[in-house]
Structure formats: structure tokens, C-alpha cells
Amino acid sequence: MLGFVTGLLDSLGYVGLVLLMFLENVFPPIPSELIMPLAGYTATRGQFAIAGVIVAGTVGSVLGALPLYWLGRRVGQDRLRTLADRHGRWLAVSPDEIDRASSWFSRHGRWVILFGRLVPGVRSLISIPAGINRMPLVPFLLLTTLGSGVWTAILALLGYQLGSRFGEVETYLSPASNVILGLMAAAYLWRVIRPPRRRTAGGNAAHRG
């Protein structure tokens, strides 16, 4: 996985970084915690400028947030719940998770977009309830850009500060990244093959009410 990220950065430059961060948001096969420090490290070798790394990472992150925002906005909560109820195993999301995300957004307001972008595992999904609740696009983009900029800057500067010592970190990071990818795959497979939970009549009635 580390070799794939390095190869894409070497061949496509900033465009490769934008693409990686876009994919990380839409479907996170490679975490930003790996992408951005590695990109920051390349800046110490003169391949990138650190400011360019931060900008490219932020642009990719914001672009990746838009498909999920429009999904929530266009499809809506009820249809998303139906989709998750029918295909939730493959989508790795349940109707209850959609309800909780929407409720969380409603309770905490649009500022949750800013702070949610700083939380691993929440960064991408927070865009869906923003769309479901029809948050205006301009504030969504502003808060997403600000939160994503802070997150990418922290990670890029971490790799930049490591500098020549990044090679030592890479010795441990490469196998660790493979372990993370394996755990993600195992978690997904578990959601696919596990027996479905029975939904109680009371729970269904509560939702309809």
C-alpha cells in the first residue's frame, strides 16, 4: 500500500495527491494518516512544496466530500434508509447508523462539519447528514475546506518535520499500513457475512411515528 501511494505521487505529482485524498473520502481504502505525512516528507526532498501539499490535500478532501453531500441531499433520509435496509451489508451501513448521523447533525448544527473533519472515521460520513438536512452548499464548502485544511496541514507538517527520519518511520509504517488495510477488509467482510439483526415491530413503529 505504501508503495502504491509513493508511486502515484511520483508519477502524477499534485494531481496524484488530489486523487488519493478524493478516494480516501469517497471510499477510504488508504487513510489520510498515511497519504499526507508521506506527501509532506516528499517536500523535504524538493519534489513538492509543503504549501502545495497542503493545498492539494485540502482540494482532494473537499472534492471527495461533495459526492456524499449530494447523495444525502438528492436521495434523502427515507430513501437512504431503504437502500441501507436492502443493501446495507454491501454498503457497510445500516438504517440505524443513518438515523444516528442525521440526529447528531440536527442536535449539533452545521459546526459539526468543521470539527467532524478532524475526526478519523467521521470525516467522510459527516457529509451525508449535511446533505440530508439540506445544508446550503456555500457554508458546507467553507466549513469543509477549513476543517480539511487544518487536518491535512497537521499531517503534512508531521511528515515534513520528520524529514530524513521518515525513512526510519517507513520501516514500521509499511507493514503497519498493510495490517490496517487487512483489518478494514476483515471488518467489511464481517458486516457482509454476519446474520442480519431482527428489527422489532416496536422499533419500526417508533420510526414511522
From TrEMBL:
Pfam families assigned to the protein according to its UniProt record, in alphabetical order: VTT_dom (PF09335)
Keywords, A to Z, come to:
Cell membrane, Membrane, Transmembrane, Transmembrane helix
Q: Is-annotated flag, keyword Nucleus?
A: no
Q: Which residues form the VTT domain?
A: 30-161
Per its UniProt entry, which superkingdom is the organism in? Bacteria
Gene Ontology CC terms, in alphabetical order: plasma membrane
Q: Where in the cell is it found?
A: Cell membrane
Q: Provide the membrane topology annotation.
A: Multi-pass membrane protein
Q: Where are the transmembrane segments?
A: 12-28, 48-71, 137-160, 172-190
Specify whether Transmembrane is a keyword of the entry.
yes
Q: What is its main location?
A: membrane
Name-wise, this protein is Membrane protein DedA with SNARE-associated domain
